[in-house]
Specification:
Layout lengths: L10 E5 L3 H13 L4 E6 L10 E4 L1 H10 L1 H10 L1 E3 L2 E5 L2 E5 L4 E5 H15 L2 E4 L6 H7 L2 E4 L6 H5 L1 H4 L1 E15 L6 E8 L2 E11 L2 E9 H6 L6 H15 L1 H4 L4 E2 L6 E8 L3 E2 L2 E3 L14 H18 L3 H31 L9 H9 L7 H7 L1 H11 L12 E3 L2 E3 L3 E3 L14 H12 L4 E8 L16 H17 L4 E7 L10 H4 L12 E2 L14 E2 L2 H20 L4 E6 L4 H6 L14 H4 L1 H13 L6 E6 L10 H13 L4 E5 L17 H11 L3 E3 L6 H9 L5 E4 L1 H5 L3 H8 L36
Helix pairs in contact: 1-4, 1-11, 2-3, 2-11, 3-4, 11-12, 14-15, 16-17, 19-22, 23-24
């Protein structure tokens, strides 16, 4: 049988001669030497922005598998080091075991240029590429690796649908003629504000130095002067500020300029035969060192998908499907790091080691557990400063919440069960809350308990507007106190407002009841889902007074029922939250308009509840720190809201986000809401409860040690495993008083054995 003829080789055009574009060209040529590949680069071969490039061991492993020749050349050039040093207020703290490899960006390009020439790839320097649409007519594949200011992306914005966000700091990419001894993060407090240095060695006698500061600091310091003369003065100023770090050496530039970082996100990465790669498709803040890394990994994935798929169209779809989750995860980490530095001034008062730990774990990629493996001595010192008794993980250190002593830092978050009858909690609630109390958490919270029948979300919501309901709750609190001694149980009081009279969650979340609806009330007559939800009536003076008294009456019943703590629900678009958000409060009376007026009614309710709630039991408040929607609650608003409640006697602020308007766009991800708690704690110093996709005990320990939260509330993990806290203790080998096992369960306190897992194979291996 005659073998089928080989498919014709691809003609490939690469726009942009940065590391990502060049490496993509190398890999595509290696896969099929018959391919005709041309790279267009508008600049000269040695004309590059920046100085050093950091690559991770993971990326280097991919390069080693895909092109050993490039890897050997890179390996000869690398400068390697293990330490990260943080300098702040005269304290220099070093953490080891991190493992970095860097080389000069110019040298990296030279290696890739040589490899391209060896393979027969055409390099066209000082030559702008033809438009991508023209190239697509004569080529089978167009790789647009033309950077953060991609002409290809902007020309075809209607297809790629880019979203660009410019951030609040200015930075400049420089170099110094000395080899720093570690990855350096040095903080300087100047008369104009806080400045920070990010630096690392990339050659035997040279280091990359990035100077960054808030826009207002940059202007106040006079660093915004235009032209070469202005930049020269900037370099002199920054070299003087960081003279100790630089050992008195000057800073030098090459095509450097002050700029604001832009995050690039694209809804689509390909169009026809054209595909975006590297910074053209996505950017990640330099503080986690991922720009070149992402571009190189893009190139590896694109080449592999073109080998594995029969058509270019299928390969481009597979490339995006593979890379997008990885990139989005990296961008979430980079955004967390970026915002950490933007809000650096709020953290300056932290103790030195906690500050350093906070910086090291800012992106949530490095955790308490990672750091313990890398540098146990440093982590031990941070734990001692935190107050951990010997052998006690941070999550099992006690915490005093006002007058209430909690044996550990874990809270079972309020979770609506929609399983009550006429507001009365039944056998299900006894087992549900009882099981979680036996599971070891320091504090177990009820679901939102409604203060009236009209204040329910659904017919299945619990309440505290009758004596029968109070008696049922008393049975539950008695069980917790008797069978799980040391566990506190709290009640969350709330009123659904405009989000009420809906079906049970599993029957249609936020869908109105088909019959037997009850009237709704809210700050303003705005339906939650226009055209779908019932239109509420705006509370008048009599209505405001009546609802306030319902809250107070429910609080009295809660106290009589034996709850240890009361939380006022002012989040998630329910009644009190509806007064706080400008998106849901359109009132023109004393309860609408500026934030101080929108706060009035929630504070009146808080005061009424506090007046009847026992002095020896704390009150907390849950807020939505952002609405995730334009025109909604801002970061500054959330701090002001927290400040107001703290001034009225809140022992802690439970910091959630969103669920205020249906058109919200949350930035979902691991621990995605915790930066809002961190901001409030840093700005006000009040205790905060962090929530939002906190799923591992390692994350909990990290958040606590970094000073981003005082307590961590977990919901879904406690649905998955009622004994989540006890299991966390077992997995950490902890047997102390912060997580005592109930006697009947002690046999389960030994961590069961687990099987091994193997690391994934390299993405692309070429002989």
């Amino acid at each position: 049988m005659t073998p089928a003829p080989a498919p014709p080789p691809l003609r490939v055009a690469v726009i942009g001669g940065g590391p990502g574009g060049l490496y993509a060209a190398v890999l595509l040529k290696r896969l099929d030497p018959r391919r005709e590949i041309t790279v267009w680069e508008r600049n000269a071969p040695d004309d590059t922005f920046g100085f050093g490039v950091v690559l991770s061991d993971e990326t280097l492993g991919g390069i080693a598998s895909a092109d050993p020749a490039v890897h050997r050349a890179l390996r000869r050039e690398f400068v390697r080091w293990d330490d990260i040093t943080v300098t702040h207020r005269g304290h220099r703290l070093t953490s080891g075991g991190h493992g970095f490899a860097a080389l000069g960006r110019r040298r990296l390009l030279e290696i890739l240029h040589h490899r391209c020439a060896t393979l027969g790839i055409r390099l066209r320097f000082r030559t702008p590429a033809p438009p991508a649409a023209d190239l697509a007519r004569t080529h089978d594949l167009v790789v647009a690796a033309d950077g953060v200011h991609s002409t290809t992306r902007e020309t075809h914005a209607g297809v790629f649908r880019p979203r660009l966000a410019t951030h609040r700091c200015r930075y400049v990419w420089l170099a110094a003629d000395l080899a720093l001894d570690a990855f350096r993060f040095d903080i300087a407090e100047t008369p104009h504000g806080v400045m920070q240095l990010h630096g690392y060695p990339y050659a035997p006698g040279a280091s990359t130095v990035i100077i960054e500061m808030r826009e207002e600091v940059w202007r106040a310091a006079g660093l915004d002067a235009p032209g070469p003369g202005g930049l020269a003065r900037s370099l002199e100023h920054c070299a003087a500020v960081f003279a100790d770090t630089l050992d008195g050496r000057p800073l030098r530039s090459h095509r450097s300029s002050w700029t604001a970082f832009r995050t690039v996100v694209n809804e689509h990465w390909s169009s026809g035969r054209t595909v975006l790669l590297g910074d053209a498709a996505h950017t990640a803040h330099f503080s986690i060192g991922s720009g070149t890394k992402l571009a190189v990994e893009d190139a590896l994935a694109l080449a592999a998908c073109l080998r594995e798929r029969p058509t270019v169209a299928e390969a481009l779809a597979a490339y995006e499907a593979e890379r997008r989750p990885v990139v989005e995860s990296t961008q979430r980490a980079a955004t967390a790091s970026l915002r950490w530095f933007e809000e650096l001034a709020d953290r300056l008062e932290q103790p030195p080691r906690q500050f350093a730990f906070n910086l090291l774990t800012r992106s949530r990629r490095v955790t308490h557990g990672n750091l313990r493996l890398r540098d146990p001595a440093f982590t031990d010192a941070v734990e001692r400063d935190f107050g951990c008794p010997p052998g006690t993980p941070p999550m099992f250190t006690p915490f005093r919440l006002g007058p209430l002593e909690l044996r550990n830092r874990i809270v079972v978050s309020p979770m609506d069960m929609y399983s009550a009858v006429d507001g009365v909690p039944g056998e299900f609630h006894l087992v549900h809350l009882g099981a979680r109390a036996l599971g070891g958490a320091g504090l177990v919270m009820t679901e939102m308990v409604c203060v009236s029948a009209e204040g329910r979300i659904t017919p299945g919501c619990t309440g505290l507007w009758t004596g029968e309901q109070a008696a049922a709750w008393r049975r539950i609190t008695r069980f917790v106190h008797d069978q799980a001694p040391g566990t506190a149980i709290g009640v969350q009081l709330g009123h659904a407002g405009r989000k009420g009279s809906t079906r049970l969650m599993w029957e249609g979340m936020d869908d109105p009841l088909p019959e037997r609806n009850w009237p709704l009330s809210a700050a303003s007559p705005l339906p939650y889902r226009p055209g779908v939800s019932q239109v509420p009536h705006a509370l008048d003076r009599a209505g405001l007074t009546a609802v306030r008294e319902e809250f107070a009456a429910a609080a009295r019943r809660a106290a009589d029922s034996g709850f240890d703590l009361l939380e006022l629900h002012c989040a998630h678009g329910y009644l009190l939250s509806g007064f706080l958000s400008p998106l849901t409060n359109r009132r023109t009376d004393a309860y609408g308009g500026p934030l101080e007026h929108r706060l009035r009614y929630p504070l009146e309710v808080f005061d009424a509840v506090r007046a009847v709630w026992p002095d020896d039991r704390p009150m907390t408040v849950r807020i939505s720190a952002t609405d995730w929607a334009d025109g909604g609650t801002t970061a500054e608003d959330s701090v002001a809201i927290a400040r107001a409640f703290a001034a009225h006697g809140a022992a802690a602020i439970d910091v959630s986000t969103g669920q205020v308007v249906p058109g919200e766009r949350p930035e979902f991800g691991r621990s995605y809401q915790t930066p809002y708690a961190d901001r409030i704690r840093g700005a006000l110093g009040v205790p905060v409860i962090a929530v939002g996709a906190i799923s591992s005990w390692d994350d909990v320990n990290s958040l606590l040690l970094a000073g981003r939260a005082d307590l961590c509330a977990l919901g879904r993990p406690h649905l998955h495993d009622p004994h989540w806290t006890l299991r966390a203790a077992a997995e950490q080998g902890y047997t102390g008083p912060g997580a005592p096992w109930p006697p009947p369960y002690r046999a389960g306190s030994r961590r069961p054995p687990t099987g091994r897992t193997d690391a994934p194979k390299p993405r692309l291996t070429l002989e």
